[in-house]
Design a protein that fits this description.
The chain is α+β, with helices and mostly antiparallel strands. Helices cover 26% and strands 21% of the residues. The chain has three helices and four strands, in the order αααββββ. The protein has a four-stranded antiparallel β-sheet with strand order 1-2-3-4, with helices on one face. Helix 2 (22-29) packs antiparallel against helix 3 (33-45).
Length: 135
């Protein structure tokens, strides 16, 4: 998986995120549709929406393993619609030959297990629902 292919997938995710429903977004753009829908619902429950195209901070190749297909992980940074910073990882893979995001909800602060970029780089935004209390 090349950087160029992974960046093209990120562009598709960013273009679709603001206007799509979770179900259609995930079915169209993610390999792990159920996981995508679950993370989308969690983000929606916290009233989190992306503001604009995220910035790619770095990327790394992910090798195939016995249990999973490889691809490329992108570390992205951006702002939510309410202005909070997030840092997430987007894993792009192509088990059927078509590059897609594994999950694709890039504004949630989630990451890839056993990421080659490390485990402590994520920034998870807080709830943006009106009346939400600080933890």
């Amino acid at each position: 998986m090349s950087d160029k292919q992974a960046l093209a997938v990120l562009d598709q995710l960013a273009a679709a995120a603001p206007g799509e429903s979770g179900a259609s977004y995930c079915k169209k753009l993610a390999y792990q549709v159920e996981s995508c829908e679950h993370i989308w619902k969690e983000a929606a429950a916290d009233c989190l929406k992306p503001a604009s195209q995220p910035r790619v901070r770095r990327s790394a190749a992910v090798r195939n393993t016995r249990d999973s297909d490889g691809g490329r992980v992108l570390e992205v940074e951006g702002k939510t619609a309410a202005g909070q910073r997030y840092v997430s990882e987007v894993f792009v893979t192509a088990p059927d030959g078509t590059p897609k995001a594994s999950v694709g909800v890039y504004w949630s602060g989630s990451g890839l297990a056993n990421s080659p970029l490390g485990e402590t780089n994520k920034v998870v935004p807080k709830s943006e629902c009106s009346g939400a209390k600080e933890n």
